[in-house]
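Researcher: Quick test of sequence recovery. Tokens follow.
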């Protein structure tokens, strides 16, 4: 996959962030924890020639596709540099801000969007016991201008064609997934996306929203308590397909248990209702699946 990246400097000179910029961006813009910022500064200092060249090429991939859809496929970072992907992303923050400003997106929203970086750094530390950003490629959506955080939910322009399909995504940090929070976010998106991308969406009627997630598995309703927000969220979507029969271990381990995929079942934490409910299903032989569904606005009263 590395071969498919543009060459170093192909689009513009790589604005390699220095230690002070890395620290400031992480603490002031990305809401990162101090230990993640410290480790990132150390990791920056440890980049060798080949790692710096790869960071440059990753940045060029972003610069070449500002305003493009979805997120980019990136090669796995070299084992010695688990934070490598962070640096081209931080280098691209000014490109993102310029894109947002051009499209009338408030700086407030740009800042809120970057909070996801701090969250995923925290999650990596929880998963692997050290600093890292295993989903660095995910943030190429944020910095290229395809993804926005509008209230509780994230919306990403993902599909092909003149009015691309919009994916709904759910951060871990951000509070309960109540129907009111979901409705507010979706209402915002129906207004926001046509305003930001008038060449794609003439109005809310051009938007098709969907979600692919462990949250949409209808089996969850049988295992979660009545008060859980998750089944109510799932029921907003018209499901398509049957999901992957191989299951969704990596997502459940990551999002529900906060553990790496190789953690044995008996070592998973059972600290709250969600974890205990999913575990009860595992023990009963339920094959949990990720499902895809299209958002039915009428189920939100919209
Ligand atoms: C989706 C999400 C916001 C739902 O949270 P919610 O609205 O609080 O969900 P529920 O109403 O079902 O919460 C029920 C229980 O789950 C717990 N819970 C909520 N989020 C949790 C999480 N990320 N990890 C573990 N437990 C969680 C709550 O503490 C509660 O337990 P309690 O009753 O013992 O206090 C939450 O599961 C989450 O943050 N997930 C991670 C992000 C994610 O999965 N995104 C989708 C990726 S495809």
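Model:
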């Amino acid at each position: 996959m590395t071969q498919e990246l543009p060459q170093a400097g192909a689009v513009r000179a790589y604005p390699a962030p220095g230690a002070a910029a890395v620290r400031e961006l992480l603490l002031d813009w990305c809401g990162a924890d101090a230990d993640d910022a410290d480790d990132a500064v150390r990791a920056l200092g440890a980049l060798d020639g080949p790692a710096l060249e790869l960071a440059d090429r990753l940045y060029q991939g972003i610069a070449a596709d500002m305003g493009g859809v979805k997120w980019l496929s990136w090669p796995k970072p070299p084992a010695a540099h688990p934070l490598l992907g962070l640096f081209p992303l931080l280098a691209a923050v000014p490109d993102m801000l310029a894109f947002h400003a051009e499209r009338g997106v408030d700086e407030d929203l740009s800042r809120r969007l970057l909070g996801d970086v701090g969250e995923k750094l925290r999650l990596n530390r929880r998963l692997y016991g050290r600093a890292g950003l295993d989903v660095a490629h995910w943030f190429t959506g944020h910095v290229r201008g395809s993804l926005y955080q509008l209230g509780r939910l994230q919306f990403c322009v993902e599909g092909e064609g003149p009015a691309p399909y919009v994916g709904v995504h759910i951060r871990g940090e951000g509070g309960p997934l109540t129907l009111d929070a979901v409705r507010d976010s979706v209402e915002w998106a129906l207004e926001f996306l046509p305003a930001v991308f008038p060449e794609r969406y003439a109005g809310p009627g051009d938007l098709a929203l969907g979600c692919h997630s462990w949250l949409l598995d209808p089996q969850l309703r049988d295992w979660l308590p009545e008060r859980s927000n998750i089944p109510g969220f799932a029921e907003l979507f018209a499901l398509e397909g049957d999901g992957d029969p191989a299951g969704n271990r990596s997502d459940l381990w990551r999002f529900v248990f906060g553990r790496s995929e190789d953690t044995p079942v008996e070592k998973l934490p059972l600290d709250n209702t969600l974890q205990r409910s999913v575990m009860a299903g595992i023990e009963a032989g339920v094959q949990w699946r990720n499902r895809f569904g299209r958002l039915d606005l009428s189920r939100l009263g919209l």
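Strands lie at 147-150, 153-157, 166-170, 209-213, 237-240, 291-295.
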